[in-house]
């Protein structure tokens, strides 16, 4: 008997700085209701789905900065998402900026949660790969200060939910093969990941025309090489003068895109996902137990940066 989940990839168009939390929550609720009407059990929202992508600015006023973070989840403005999920029997993945106090110290993370069809939190993930830079770099058309505003997460976990093994990632994580493989080694069958990706990458403008190609490339490869579904969801369009890619899509364990958005606004891409398709890859081509050779992979965890043999002239880092 196949295990199906009807999944909605819930793309958001831009969120401007002046948009209020209640206006944004209304957009998320509209997605939940539409997905429910279309028979979905799970909705996947983007990264930082409650605010504009604020790491594009260098801000020094702590109050100004902390207004972008959620101090509790659910909180006063987000509680309605959980109540609606429980009422409709539809779960969701949500990306947001998390501020938490542990042992009297404040910690800030780029976070996602997975909420079940009963409206209860199943799991939390904190972004491991924080791109960009930690200090203000005025030469850039816009900043990318995730290393300034967030601490990195330390692990990729999976959870048994929705009839399968579910995993979470966030944005830049999708560019690193280790993200998928660590969850693949835990039997993941569906990876949910939201992203906010500017078209323009200031350190490498020559890549800009390939931003959509790279977006699909990494997610399709991750899906196929680990025999897992991947649901990639954009916050897209022009946010505060910064154009962000769309490309929201649902990818099967074969690596094929089975559903995709075609706009850069609020849009659902929906697919009926058969989790049993994963087995076809996990038991053959990517039967890790039969084919992997960890004894040859030591450098992957023992070395951070690339080191070429002495006689190869490499361009300066
Ligand atoms: N955004 C971008 C991402 O990885 C980026 C940052 C853009 C990195 C282009 C490299 C190239 O999609 C986030 N939020 O990680």
Structural class: alpha/beta
Low-confidence stretches: none
The count of helical stretches stands at: 9
Main beta-sheet strand count, sense and barrel state: 6 strands, mixed
Using the CA coordinates, give the radius of gyration.
19 Å
Mean pLDDT across every amino acid position: 97
Bound heterogens, unique: D-[(amino)carbonyl]phenylalanine
Instruction: Classify the beta-strand content into a percent band.
Output: 25-35%
Order of helices and strands: EHEHHEEEHEEHEHEEEEEEHHH
Domain CN hydrolase: 5-277
Pfam families: CN_hydrolase (PF00795)
Keywords: Hydrolase
Protein name: N-carbamoyl-D-amino-acid hydrolase
What does this structure look like?
Helices cover 23% and strands 26% of the residues. The chain contains 9 helices and 14 strands. The model has no long low-confidence stretch (mean pLDDT 97). It has helices at 21-37, 62-66, 79-88, 146-149, 177-184, 211-226, 277-282, 288-291, 299-302, and strands at 4-11, 42-44, 91-102, 105-115, 121-126, 158-161, 164-170, 190-195, 229-234, 237-239, 242-244, 249-251, 257-260, 267-274. The strands form 3 sheets. The chain has a 6-stranded mixed beta sheet with strand order 5-4-3-2-1-14. It has a 6-stranded mixed beta sheet with strand order 6-7-8-9-12-13, covered by helices on one side. It has one domain: 4-Layer Sandwich (Nitrilase/N-carbamoyl-D-aminoacid amidohydrolase). Helix 1 packs parallel to helix 3 (79-88) and helix 5 packs parallel to helix 6. The protein has 317 residues and is an alpha/beta fold. The chain binds D-[(amino)carbonyl]phenylalanine (ING). The site of D-[(amino)carbonyl]phenylalanine has 9 residues, from loops. It comes from Bordetella genomosp. 4. Keywords: Hydrolase. This is N-carbamoyl-D-amino-acid hydrolase. InterPro entries: Aliph_Amidase/BUP (IPR050345), C-N_Hydrolase (IPR003010), C-N_Hydrolase_sf (IPR036526). One of its GO terms (molecular function) is hydrolase activity, acting on carbon-nitrogen (but not peptide) bonds, in linear amides.
